[in-house]
């Protein structure tokens, strides 16, 4: 309705539907003298198209024609007493005032307001329900013809046969359930064993990884230590070589200085040898 441009609340829609139903009931109950136009309700074709189909839908969906006819039959089936006051007391007030009192209304009053339509619909339903209760009381008070007890309990033979037929099925279902339960328990035990085995393997792999990491760290430390030791040995050898070279250079320098200070030492060795002789 909002897409079509109507702004109605759910409560207003319900009241409008009740009003249309009440007007439809009035139009069905009102006698019309003109045969060409039997009913003068504005939305009668649409309401009749909707409510007239309910008679073919089952006992729960009752049409307005059937409801109006049954109300009229129940009102006619009430025994007329010589005392009109008692007869008026038997008839429900809503049925006389709401349902059947609308027969003399004019055509313009067919489309009543929302409040009047709701009250008339509720009054007609209340009148029919009260008529039904009164008829039930009269039926219970009257003697039963033919000696047939309508309130006799139903025999429970079919229920017993159904229960006997259901016993094997329930037994089979219980056996299947027990078997499924045992299989499920076995699977759970197996899964728990596999989980523990996987956890043990995971711990073993973790221990192996830790051992390998420790071994790698030890090897790395050993390599670093050997490398440092070799570097220190190389430095020591270089220092020793430098010290030996420094000593040799010092000796050569001292010898050259002594030769410069003593010129006789620079004579020929043979002459020195002859002089010695």
TrEMBL record:
<feature type="region of interest" description="Disordered">
    <location>
        <begin position="252"/>
        <end position="277"/>
    </location>
</feature>
<dbReference type="InterPro" id="IPR044822">
    <property type="entry name" value="Myb_DNA-bind_4"/>
</dbReference>
<feature type="domain" description="Myb/SANT-like DNA-binding">
    <location>
        <begin position="1"/>
        <end position="49"/>
    </location>
</feature>
<feature type="region of interest" description="Disordered">
    <location>
        <begin position="75"/>
        <end position="126"/>
    </location>
</feature>
<dbReference type="Pfam" id="PF13837">
    <property type="entry name" value="Myb_DNA-bind_4"/>
</dbReference>
<keyword id="KW-0175">Coiled coil</keyword>
<feature type="coiled-coil region">
    <location>
        <begin position="188"/>
        <end position="227"/>
    </location>
</feature>
<protein>
    <recommendedName>
        <fullName>Myb/SANT-like DNA-binding domain-containing protein</fullName>
    </recommendedName>
</protein>
<feature type="compositionally biased region" description="Basic and acidic residues">
    <location>
        <begin position="267"/>
        <end position="277"/>
    </location>
</feature>
